[in-house]
Amino acid sequence: MTTLLCLFLVALGSALVLTPLVKRLGVRLGAVDDPAERKVHTTPIPRVGGVAVLFAFTIAMALLNLHVTRVSELFTFDRQTAFGLYGALVVFGCGLWDDFRRLNPWIKLLLQILGATIAFAGGISIGGIVVGGYSLQLGVFSYAVTVFWFILFINAVNMIDGLDGLAGGVVFFTCLLMVILSVMRTDYLPGIYFAALGGSVLGFLRYNFNPASIFLGDSGSYFLGYAVAALSIMGSVKSQVGALMLIPLLALGVPVFDAILAPLRRWVIGQRMFRPDRGHIHHRLLAMGLSSRKVVLILYGVTLGLCLLAIVVVNFRNEVAGLVLVILGGVALIMIRKTGYLEYLAVDKFYGWFLDITDAVGLSRERRTFLALQIEMNRARTMEDLCVYLGEALEMLKFDRAELHLRKAESKVSIWGEKGEAPLAPDSAAPERRNPFGNDTLAPPSKEIFQDILKVGDKPVWSWTRGYYRRQTDFMKEEVLKIDLPLSQGGDGEHLLLMKDLARDPLQYYTLRRLEHLRRTLRSNLSRL
What we know:
Helix content: 55-70%
Largest sheet: 5 strands, antiparallel
Number of helices: 19
Shape: elongated
Structural class: alpha+beta
Strand content: 5-15%
Order of helices and strands: HEEHHHEEHHHHEHHHHHHHHEHEEHEEH
Distance between the termini: 93 Å
Number of strands: 10
């Protein structure tokens, strides 16, 4: 215990001394974070704090064996430790380069994978999963799971590094928890690593807490995320994913949850998955009117609560611990939902998206039926047959009125009859049906669906109506949707006029898409006939 405390104090003192020096170096080299739309600060601040954290951690580990104790003898610079350090340097170098010259997100992802691959090659790998005393060996999937583990922690810490002291404080509480659990289990080797890392972070927090004078930068957040991921594997038993290995995952629950949902949220709303935004949890809390300091303290409190819960889970590995985790997950979802973080991931939106997909690929019966009507329209030999199928299609779409305006009568009149005879209504017949926006006369009540051929000027008009209506009082209301679809390019005026009462029957998710298919089919067949 004394060795762990001394190691912690050495790392703490090193960070306190190194951070101001690194701050001045960052200003001199121009590695500063300028104010921007996504930033909370208003003045340029150096963003190379990760250099101080890495050096403080390295100094503490290098001085560990100067005073040999039973605990310090547990640390050996073996192959696993060496490859873990090499991978950390790759990830750290990637973040440091990005602090000076912005890197493409895909390049950063590839370098993160490279760092995880180096650690995997050195033996820092997840070999299996332990659930309820049963072990599942991952085999060839071990590499993929290990790389995902590293990338998850690296980007979780990086994403939450948006407020002064937030990322560093969350990582410090995680390190403190792991030291406590190490002492409780009398397994001091993981405690050595986490004591040195925790002291380095706490010393840096002296200058990073609100108002911050230096930032972690990508170099610091990448290194901390990588270190927690690697040390959690190295401290597990036979590299199996069990309760102890999941403790850091639970302690870092807030940033890990954010890291998992952020790409999904961006994908749902049509943004690039790696494009920064202001949709993270701490941004949502800021949008609720909380100050930056209050948001950090709230998330500190949540992390402390998760750390205490982790201790309970370790000591009660039974159904009680599982029930506590289930309750915690439900409370977390409710709280995050209240902040509006999941507004784009609502069930109704996913259901609508699912309906769109099933309709587009023809899985729904209605879509296949509508497609069959389009095929029949392509087979129609007369305008009368074409209009019959058109009426059936409009009935499926639940439109209330349609008018198909064609070319002049002398050019199209023969298509409805034989030997040039067209059953067009004479000017003196049914005057109330000649004008589509005529008086308040009711449609004939004897038919639920009414269709006829009218004559407007010198043009034939196919008129179709579903149900009963009053032309002015029903179809001039604000709730009525009116769509005029052009059907020709020559300027001859062929078009399809559609009307739908949205107050009685709102638009369905597929209506406009099917309507465009109908327009294309009708246009090609009008040219053919």
